[in-house]
Amino acid sequence: MYRIGELAQLCEVKTDTLRFYEKHGLLSPSSRTDSGYRIYTENDAERLRFILRAKAVGFTLAEITELLSIELDKSNWACADVKGLVDDKLANVEAKIAELNHFQLSLQRLSQACCGGPESAEHCSILEALESSTDNIRCENHSHTHDDVQFTKNCQNKAVSKNSKEK
Amino acid sequence: MYRIGELAQLCEVKTDTLRFYEKHGLLSPSSRTDSGYRIYTENDAERLRFILRAKAVGFTLAEITELLSIELDKSNWACADVKGLVDDKLANVEAKIAELNHFQLSLQRLSQACCGGPESAEHCSILEALESSTDNIRCENHSHTHDDVQFTKNCQNKAVSKNSKEK
DNA sequence: CTTGACCTTGGATACAACTCCAAGGTTTAT
DNA sequence: ATAAACCTTGGAGTTGTATCCAAGGTCAAG
Ligand SMILES: [Zn+2]
Ligand SMILES: [Zn+2]
Ligand SMILES: [Zn+2]
Ligand SMILES: [Zn+2]
Predict the structure, then answer these.
(1) 3-state secondary structure A14-59
(2) Which residues, numbered 28 to 47 in chain B, qualify as contacts with chain A under a Cβ-Cβ cut-off of 8 Å?
(3) Which of A30, A72, B11, B84 has the smallest number of CB atoms closer than 10 Å to its CB?
(4) How far apart are CA B152 and CA A52, in angstroms?
């Protein structure tokens, strides 16, 4: 049994957030004291943890509400319904992962094309990529001195072609 | 030279969005007609494309503002600065992916524990998991008839232990 | 000269998900 | 018995990213 502040501290959220969740039907305390203080059970805490995990990975509160609301009305749902909902969310998550993977790839390509060195960004390949097409990223080729291995470690093509020591 | 509607159509955004970007300092038309119409140059169009590309790889407008300020003033920035922004964003995206993968796993476990059949969800293992700990998911065991292979295909443990035909 | 498509502005609205505030009631420790 | 720390409510404010609206100005065609 927790009071609102205890549960908040336990789960590292603000009391306001718990009241907000209550107002929006995600999590209500199992009871109240005579004086009106909210009393949360361990069960409530578990439910909160689920909400927080779902939230942490990008589920909206609306989606979480949908997922949790079935519980109110179990007998009017079939396993197929419940599983369907979960599978919808799963597809949702997988779509988000795919989208982020796309971002990741784009960012990795941008990152890898830039030497990350201390010289002027005038020829920075990241900026050049953003200036033109992102599909067409070239390893940058500074006009200034740029042979130092320290600054070409991320720039394989250039490192190989310019200071061909290895070969 | 484009009027706002032309540029909007060209880049597939709304005129409101262009005015919004202007208000927030991301993109201002190079000039105005005598009557006050915004006039965008090809240069402005390029800048807009820069913004849209950066958005497409996951940067927020605030981050794009930062990128644009570097763009305008390249020579006072180093590759390291630019790459730093990209790498921060990359770390950010990767953290989000990791979280999503975690939740994907949870959802997959939920999904797999449920038979997905047409009978009441009263004993649905998904709901049971939501009610208590999600770490402790058991394959559901309906009290009603549930031997049909059709409804147990996703429920390996039960399928094996209950109707032990295979073995 | 009228019509319709386009443009202007400032301000309103939307949505998510909080976050803070004011004014007051309750508990607990000393 | 009083202060500190907690709790209550309703409502307002915040951030990001737009999107919409009203009232009116501009422009080209017929
Ligand atoms: Zn460089
Ligand atoms: Zn660079
Ligand atoms: Zn079932
Ligand atoms: Zn089930």
Answers:
(1) CHHHHHHHHHCCCCCCCEECCCCCEEECHHHHHHHHHHHHHHHCCC
(2) 46
(3) A72
(4) 31
* Domains contained in chain A, CATH given: 4-77 (1.10.1660.10), 96-162 (no CATH)
The whole-angstrom distance between B16's CA and the closest CA on chain A is 23
User: Chunked in runs of 10, what are the mean pLDDT values of chain B (167 residues)?
Assistant: 97 97 95 97 94 88 92 91 90 86 85 92 84 66 55 42 37
3-state secondary structure of B9: helix
Half-sphere exposure of B152 (CA within 13 A, CB side): 19
Question: Where does chain B show beta strands of DSSP type E?
Answer: 31-32, 38-39
Residue B132: predicted pLDDT: 65
Q: Is the pTM here over 0.85, yes or no?
A: no
Cα of A30 from ligand 4 centre, angstroms: 25
